[in-house]
Amino acid sequence: MYKVFVNDTPIIITSCSENKNNYLFFKFKSILFKDVLKKAKIKDIKGIILYSKDLKNDWKSFISNMEVILAAGGLVLNNKKEILFIYRNGVWDLPKGWIEKKETIESAAIREVEEECGIYNLKIVKPLVTTYHIYNQNGVKLKQTHWFLMTSDFNKELTPQLEEGITQVTFKNSVKTEIALKNTYENIKLVYYTFKEG
Question: What was the pLDDT predicted at 2?
Fold first, then answer.
């Protein structure tokens, strides 16, 4: 299964024919990519399921309609098991950014978290999940973000990367994290719940 977000509306490409959430349901081969995007942008649409009989090839076909932008980021825990959040454009988010040429996914994830938050001593514990998000910027783009669980014992003042529009950086305990999740993106919730599931 692949879950791709258009804003916060999921497009699920799956080999399972169940539709428990009453999403719009189409056979993958029966609908055009541009029509799927149009439907995903309709306000009252909760989600779209594209039923695939050949998931591997249908996924390749789906992403061939867009330029794929590779990114990496982290869900960072401190010694108190608090989670590192950034605040950008009025929304709580997790630090992430584009992978540069000749850079590994892991080193990009660490670099982006360091740059956006002014934090150091990061250690990758394990990969968490890969999220997908479609947006328009000089054409249709698919941001594919590789997320890692990280830890840090850094206990100095954090510094938001203002030039990236980040105005706050803070660690949040479980109560404050739940509040932040009410004002975040669906793919960030996906990262968090993947972490909680272990």
Answer: 97
Look at residue 38 in the predicted model and tell me its pLDDT: 95
Q: 68-197 belongs to which homologous superfamily? A: Nucleoside Triphosphate Pyrophosphohydrolase (3.90.79.10)
Residue type, 66: M
Q: Which pTM was predicted?
A: 0.93
The dihedral through the CA atoms of 130, 83, 10, 137 has a sign that is negative
pLDDT at 21 (0 to 100): 86
Calculated CA dihedral for residues 19, 22, 27, 30, nearest 10 degrees:
180
Alpha helices in 64-165 (DSSP H): 105-117
The 3-state DSSP class for residue 165 equals coil
Q: Where are the alpha helices (DSSP H) in 89-164?
A: 105-117
CB distance 18 to 49 below 8 Å: no
Other beta carbons within 10 Å of 137: 9
In this prediction, residue 92 carries a pLDDT of 98
Taken in order 81, 74, 109, 148, is the CA torsion positive or negative? positive
Q: For residues 109-136, b (16+ Cβ closer than 10 Å) or e, as one string?
A: bbbbbbbbbbbeebeeeeebbbbbbbee
Report the alpha-carbon distance of residue 23 to residue 39 in Å, rounded: 11
Low-confidence ranges of the chain (pLDDT < 50): none
